[in-house]
Amino acid sequence: MDHNEIERKWQKIWDEQGINTFHDGGDKCYVLEMLPYPSGAQLHMGHWYNYGVSDSYARFMRMQGKNVFQPMGFDAFGLPAENFAIKTGIHPKDSTDKNIATMERQLSDMGVMFDWSHEIYTCRPDYYKWTQWLFLQLYKNGLCYQKKAPVNWCPSCQTVIANEQVVDGKCERCKSEVVHKEMTQWFFKITDYAEKLLDGIDKLDWPEKTKTMQRNWIGKSVGGEVHFDLVKPKGDIKTIKVFTTRADTLFGVTYVVLAPEHPYVKALTTPKYKKTVEAYVAAAAKRTDIERTSATKDKTGEFIGAYCINPLNGDKVPVLVADYCLNSYGTGAVMGVAAHDTRDYAFAVKNNMKIVRVINAEDGKGELPYTEYGVLTSSGKFDGMKSKDAIPAILDELEKIGHGGKKVNYRMRDWSVSRQRYWGAPIPIIYCEHCGAVPVPEKDLPVELPYDVNFTPDGKSPLGLNEEFMNCTCPVCGKPARRESDTLDTFVCSSWYYLRYPDAHNDKAPFDSKIVNKLLPVDCYVGGAEHACSHLLYSRFITKVLHDLGYIDFDEPFKRLVHQGVILGPDGMRMSKSRGNVISADPLIEKYGSDALRLYLMFGFDYTEGGPWSDGGIASCSKFMDRIERLVIEVKDEKADEKDGALDYELNYCIKKVSEDIPDFHFNTAVARCMELVNAMYKYRSESNYNPKYLKYALSVLVKLMAPMAPHFCDELNSLMGGKKSLMLEKYPVCDESKLVKSTTEYAVQVNSKIKCKITLPQGIAVDEIKALALKNGEVVSLLGGAAPKKIIVIPERLINFVV
After folding, report:
1. Cα distance between residue 630 and residue 634, in whole Å
2. Within 10 Å of residue 219's Cβ, how many Cβ atoms?
3. pTM of the model
4. What is the pLDDT of residues 366-376, one digit of tens each?
5. H or E stretch at 794
6. Residue pair 483/430 in contact by the 8 Å Cβ criterion
7. How far from 5 is each of 8, 12, 590, 618, 628, CA to CA, in Å?
8. Angle of helix 615-635 versus helix 711-720 axis, rounded to 10
9. 153 in Cβ contact with 160 (< 8 Å)
10. Most confident of 325-334, 502-511, 580-589
11. Which of 97-124 are b and which e, b meaning 16 or more Cβ less than 10 Å from the residue's Cβ?
């Protein structure tokens, strides 16, 4: 069979018959794969693993009677596409359009069941018009604001990146060390949805590890806030607020620490300590959060010349700046309790600071630092109380005296969405000297991205150099004004794209609520686990916002989430050009066909784990397909007859297991079941009473079973056997449970624990009868050579071991 010719033939038939086109009605099943970045010249094996294999799930669901909606588009804005353009010297729009055209062809060559009539490109004005609309909805509803704040700056990408895009202190894209800078940025108030995001996690059918990552990222802590009044207030700065989960240690506070980025540091530092503190703050900005909080790092800090008062005992304690305190957590200030915190203890010992014990172990033991709960001492009227009772009592006291109280804190910070790069959706804000920051009226959207821009990164927004773009008129007062020069984080574009697909060509609104309410949430979403605390979290946030604003009637975007693994190079390392271990799909498709590649990606790997590539694996899958084809050619002209029943057990067992495996994304075992069935067919064919009509019937079931996994191949074999339509229009085989009762069992026969042969005996007979029948079997008699066994060990329905 010429697989390439067959694949072109059936893709043409599918297109002509509209088999991949979604039609409203029926039991919907929205299957979605994370849309690709068109930042490279072509698809790589990872794309194949994601889109080709998950398409088999979608095809299976269709044959199960579901009305499958499976769209595709391109996440075309952002750093990857812009950096590719910088590298090649081609404008991002031109390179992106070219790459999309190549990827569209390659995706079509896979034979995937995408409905291209719903295709979207996030870089096109008809899409990002509505991304800008989304920004305005958050702005109008108090969920979008601008402020000067410490941000993560990637010196290589020359732009701000969100907290979620910093991995181990490095830019997740280019792996450069991230530094902190103060810049004026736009933020989305995702923190307002922290509790809702937490509450919704449990009901999701997502990998538990991903749900745990989101819980930890949101980082809910139940504790309290303590207000330390400054001895010498500075203007409006009168109090330092500290969040703590250990209010029981409050009487042991001997100092208060501010993060180097905390705005109070500059304001409260006295002239005597200014030079030292400024040098310390500058040095801290060069360190990553990971380095600053490492358990092995020496704890350092500097006194800033200020003091504050412990609200419960009136103690005057010094205020320091220390880099182990992070401005991104809590209030950016912590209370130093050296006796009861390992980090504080190490800091106090190094700097010869006071250490006050206020918690004893219940048994009176416990060396310092004692970090467990216990019994309070040296704590005034709270002496003798256990920690669990003292914590709420002390917080109540703080609230009573107006110096704090109970509080819930979240680790998650607001989402920084400003980017100092060209290739993104312009932020729809206008700056007027008279009116301030003014949102662009919705009727004036989209604010189009100009083509003629020097996009080489220099740390400033490239759009700021395009006067034609920047100069505009204030929509409020009509006077000259300037546009925002930053563009939106590309994650804003991808935070809502699943809502656009069902109504992709709507030019009046981002989507029709009736349409999306019918099709969403997405029933099965497939993509990488690396997006757990970025895209997946942002999408949940945007969905909840739109739900609360009344645009949609669901508040979670993805019911089920499946993470695909990673295909490694033959050397077991991640594929990369520098390692020379990249496997290109195109030559493999040319040699074996796309179905063989798809089958190997399913059979050779656990889908959620991935693994190293093997050239021999795809060749084996191709040979497996050849074996099926030979059987089909042999019986294709016969009239199918299912009366024989010789393979009924094997056939229905395969149907049952494959029907369980595919929905669970256990494609490797699904293919293995089919291979076992083909082996049984060949064994049946070698028997003297072989019936070709029955074999044709069995093969007709097999090609339906395998149709989701090798669609072109199976449609062609079905056609050879007289089928008149694509198998995608057929129902998936259903297991006949009555055929799973076997009348005989195959036993492995061992002699002295070594397998020698296999024999078939009636099923369900007693052990003594098994022994008797086995001793009469011709093969067993020959093996024993007249020797009387010393012992016969029987494992019913499995094994007989003769000890001689």
Report:
1. 6
2. 15
3. 0.87
4. 899 999 999 99
5. strand 791-795
6. yes
7. 5, 11, 10, 19, 18
8. 20
9. yes
10. 502-511
11. bebbeebbebbebbbbbbbeebbbbbbb
